From TrEMBL:
Annotated organism of origin: Oncorhynchus mykiss
Pfam families: TGF_beta, TGFb_propeptide
Stated name of the protein: TGF-beta family profile domain-containing protein
PANTHER family: TGF-BETA FAMILY, TGF-BETA FAMILY PROFILE DOMAIN-CONTAINING PROTEIN
The keyword Mitochondrion belongs to this UniProt entry's keyword annotation: no
Positions of transmembrane segments: none
Entry GO CC: extracellular space
Length: 348
């Protein structure tokens, strides 16, 4: 997740999306062995992830398996608690990630077929009903993270939490021979914390559709000023310039440690928020980013200074930042918080 945060931060100047990523789980260690060639599934589509506002990771809570001491086919089951899913958000993509280590005694050029199924219904005396979610062919001699698309299952679990019976993983050779997941190097709950399996889900805030305006669209090549009313003649200029600095953006760095948030915010340690301050002076120039209302308010203020205040210097454009943090359930979350950085100031 920390790798994903760095990828998002690197793309921050190019856009507001979450970007593409290949990470190494819940820690900040970058796994250079997680080569793109190991993944036949491109995780996840950039156009889908770019719309995500929140990314949540879920640790594996329940793990069961049929291993070498039991009859074939061998399998391994995982289950994740998705109940702390954010309200009012929709899933854009979800992945199940599991780490494959190098194992001794295997032919490096042999291909392993790894398939992941959703468990849809459990039966007492026979196998459960399974639905295929994703499948990959992986070289036996490589090491790294594998990502499987489980978006359809996570959407179902979001709508019907009781239907969350987990997922089941199978490993087979090219000759359809079943192999134990542990024997081929797939790490489970007993492995190191940095390589334990997890699930990551991408969310986007639900927005009500906006009704398009009926007015004719203006010419996009014609730049319209912020205000288009004629400026009245003000004969009394005693209130025009008070000697203060004009409205503009000022530096402001916010440290999460100073706010007492360092125990639950993983990254960043702080950010440049900026703030707006200064006078809205008459006449309002184009650099003031003023509205018609601000101009009228300022004119009335000059005529009736005791009754109407001046226009206010305030942010006119803001941008988001991405924050990596722990929630109340110790899940690691990457969330894009909107309107956190002042980009421009103006008179409102």
């Amino acid at each position: 997740m920390l790798d994903l945060y760095h990828a998002v931060s690197a793309k921050g100047d190019e856009g507001n999306g979450m970007g593409n990523w290949v990470g190494d789980g819940l820690t900040g260690h970058v796994s250079h062995a997680a080569l793109p060639t190991l993944n036949t599934y491109t995780a996840p589509l950039g156009t889908v992830v770019s719309e995500a506002d929140t990314v949540m990771s879920f640790v594996n809570l329940v793990e069961q398996e049929r291993d070498l001491l039991q009859p074939r086919p061998y399998w391994k089951e995982f289950r994740f608690d998705l109940t702390p899913l954010p309200q009012g958000e929709t899933v854009t993509a979800a992945e199940f990630r599991i780490y494959k280590t190098l194992t001794m005694g295997q032919r490096a050029n042999r291909s392993l077929h790894i398939s992941v199924y959703e468990i849809q219904r459990e039966n007492k005396h026979r196998e459960p009903e399974l639905v295929l979610l994703d499948m990959q062919s992986v070289p036996a001699g490589q090491e790294g993270w594998l990502a499987f698309d489980v978006t359809s299952a996570s959407n179902r679990w979001l709508l019907h939490p009781r239907s969350n019976l987990g997922i089941r993983l199978y490993v087979e050779t090219e000759e359809d021979r079943s192999l134990s997941a542990g024997w081929v190097g797939l790490v489970g709950r007993r492995g190191p914390r940095s390589k334990q399996p997890f699930m990551v889900t991408f969310f986007r805030a639900s927005q009500a559709p906006c009704r398009p305006p009926r007015a004719v669209k203006p010419n996009p090549h014609k730049k319209k000023p912020k205000y288009d009313l004629p400026l009245p003649s003000i004969h009394d200029h005693s209130h025009v310039n008070s000697g203060r600095q004009a409205c503009k953006r000022h530096e402001l760095y916010v440290s999460f440690s100073d706010l007492g948030w360092k125990d639950w915010v993983l990254a960043p340690t702080g950010y440049s928020a900026f703030y707006c301050d200064g006078e809205c002076l008459y006449p309002l120039g184009s650099c003031m980013n003023a509205t018609n209302h601000a101009m009228i308010q300022l004119v009335v203020h000059l005529l009736k200074p005791d009754e109407v205040p001046k226009a206010c210097c305030a942010p006119t454009k803001l941008s988001p930042i991405s924050v990596l943090f722990y929630d109340d359930n110790n899940n690691v979350i990457l969330k894009k918080h909107r309107n956190m950085v002042v980009k421009t100031c103006g008179c409102l």
